[in-house]
Design brief:
The complex is a heterodimer of chains A (about 450) and B (about 260).
Chain A lengths: L1 H6 L16 H39 L4 E10 L2 H4 L7 H4 L4 H19 L8 H5 L6 H11 L7 E7 L2 H8 L4 H6 L5 H13 L2 E5 L1 H5 L14 H32 L4 H14 L3 H15 L7 H25 L3 H9 L4 H29 L3 H5 L25 H9 L4 H32 L4
Antiparallel strand pairs in A: 1-2, 1-3
Helix pairs in contact in A: 2-20, 5-7, 12-15, 12-17, 12-19, 13-15, 14-15, 15-17, 16-17, 17-20, 19-20
Chain B lengths: L1 H4 L10 E12 L2 E12 L3 E5 L6 H8 L9 E9 L2 E2 L7 H7 E4 L10 H11 L6 H14 L3 H4 L12 H13 L5 E5 L7 H14 L4 E5 L3 H7 L2 E6 L2 E7 H6 L4 H7 L5
Helix pairs in contact in B: 4-5, 4-7, 5-7, 7-8
The chains are: A mainly alpha (about 450), B alpha/beta (about 260).
Amino acid sequence: MTDISAAGAVPATKPKNSLFVQDDLTRRRNAAETRFKYYGIVAIVLSLSVLAVMLFTIFRDGTSAFRQASVAFPITLEAEILDPKGARDPADLAKVTTIGYGNLIGQQFANFLIAEGIAVEGISDKDISGMISRDAPGRLRDMVLADPSLIGQTIDFNAYATGRIDGYMKGRVTLETAELDRNVSLEQLQLADKLIAAGILTSGFNTGFLTNPDASDQRPESAGLGVAIIGSLYMMMLVLIFTLPVGVAASIYLEEFAPKNRLTDLIEVNISNLAAVPSIVFGILGLAIFINFAGLPQSSSLVGALVISLMTLPTIIIATRAAIRAVPPSIRDAALGVGASKMQTVFHHVLPLAMPGILTGTILGLASALGETAPLLLIGMVAFVTNYPSGPFDGGVLDPATALPVQVYSWASRSDPAFIERSSGAIIVLLAFLVIMNVAAILLRRRFERRW
Amino acid sequence: MNDMTHKGLGLATQTAKISASGVQVHYGTNHALKDVDVTILDRTVTAFIGPSGCGKSTFLRCLNRMNDTVASCRVSGQILLEGEDIYDRRVDPVQLRAKVGMVFQKPNPFPKSIYDNVAYGPKIHGMTRNKAELDAIVEASLRKAALWGEVKDRLDATGTGLSGGQQQRLCIARAIATSPEVLLMDEPCSALDPIATAQVEELIDELRHQFSVVIVTHSMQQAARVSQKTAFFHLGNLVEFGETGDIFTNPKDPRTEAYITGRIG
């Protein structure tokens, strides 16, 4: 400071400050700026680490749901058990229940083990048949009823191993825990070791997790997301059909045509308020109106979609109005100036320019609707549904279905550890859907974006 | 003031295209334009000058009812286009705007191709029966706007990719493609550099042979260069209206003199 101010021709009234020395005010301002930057960094690190912990737990618990142990062995479909009369009459075939098939499977599996020379000392027949999922007899019965010519033949049968054996292969069940567990015996685990060594018990990608319907507590190994995925897809389709036209029409009217008066102000305020209403309230509304008053079937994707549409509509309207408002007024002037009508202006110029914003808002609205659980609980979509809904054009939207987030909820409340694993697995599937939708939103935005 | 309107020598043969009398404009409680009487002649360039906020753009936007889009705006008085009151209940502003085209301050081409920009007006007004006729209108409009030579090889390129001056000439081409009878220009050169400004001014002079042109400008030099008639607005009043030469060399009103010599505004 000294040599410069000495040489300077500054009026004596004001002391000369060197640019090389920061004064107090500047130092305080810089310190405030640095502090603010660090607050921001801390906030971001905090939220990212919470996200990382969440994803880590979900993937740690959930990835194993995508693998499933199964047992492969030949099975002879003996005619005297499955069709005592020998007439191959479907009515007669249907009289044989899954218990009959269960006995057949247990017996054949025991025989197969003897033939292969695999034996464990002290193992009971019940333990041997208990290696195989209780889902297997039902599936075998369905196969036979679908194709009676199989009777009398020997087929290669692939059955799920029970949840405990599956857990043993995934390390969830150990010899120590098995001692305390009434659902699995040490002999079964010893047998499992031998079957693995013989290549009979194997673990592979669990396609059933994505296609099977839900299953009871006795057979968690066969529980899947099939019905929930179909239910969620139906709902998203319907929500899109219900909300996009209504939301876009409402937004265009409010933004471009509506007079600005008390009434439209009131409508605007209420739309914003609707977006903030807790979702459970919409569930009660749906229960009262769509099910009790209108008499629509419970647990159906149609009712779920109607309730979720009510919730998504305000989001879509707000996003669409913002997108429409972001179109520069000069474009409207230009169109009106060459003699376009209001409607031509909106549909030829404003709407195409607002499209990326509308699509992004709609997809993000749908994505949040996809994860919505509370209102669906109230309208009965948390039900235990084991039948697939029919096709979308055969009234499938009226059939009982569940949805992905509801399936997560109902599995998480079940006791078997195999359901806990599936619950996390379902979250992964749900997250995958959300990621796909968000990527679609970004791609659409890029695709339609235009500059002016 | 009205008595000055028809004084111009050599313009006596020209007919009045638009005659406005007693025009008042309110924006809510703000009285933006007070009792304006102007006659705009056919095939003449009329310039509106005056300081910012004096009402010249407001009046211009009354002439094709662009003010209708402003909810709080109320217009009273009479504006006749060839003897027909454009604020009559039976008049559809959409039809009016096809006759009275407009070019805006900021070049505002549609984010579409150059061709589509020019073809949009003729298309929505159903002026052509086939593609060949439309092509002919697009070419003629671009030629009149002195842009054809620069863009004829890239009609499919987007209009927003042109330079500022080219964009403004594209907007002029778009406005004249619907064959309007009057062309309103709201400070068309304020966003342009001097070279582009000169091109647009030259263009305005050309257009005068076919249309009646009304131009709002902040530049008094521009008004003097391109217009035959000039109206000076101040604080919502039409202060003086007459031959451009008279206004600039021999203003009658002290406020006009103060403005053109740079003392107010």
